Amino acid sequence: MYTQVTKTNEREHSKEQSGMLRTGEACRILCIHSNTLRRWCKQGMVKAYRVGPRGDRRFRREDIAALLIEKTKDSSSDRVKLSHQ
Asked: What domains, with CATH codes, occur in the chain?
């Protein structure tokens, strides 16, 4: 499920990275633990791009925003269900 992103030169790499989030940044936006985000990647809920020699994960801002919207909808529908019981 992971897509390998290769670094060709510094300018292209910095352009590529400008729209990408590190694991910690994505976790702060989603208000989740990093292990949760890693698990969601393995489950295919969000796509991670592997970069650098260590294979660090990067996430597209658009993907994290879509996941946040989905997560917000799920939690608000749960609140509605609880309030109608």
From this structure: 3-83 (1.10.1660.10)
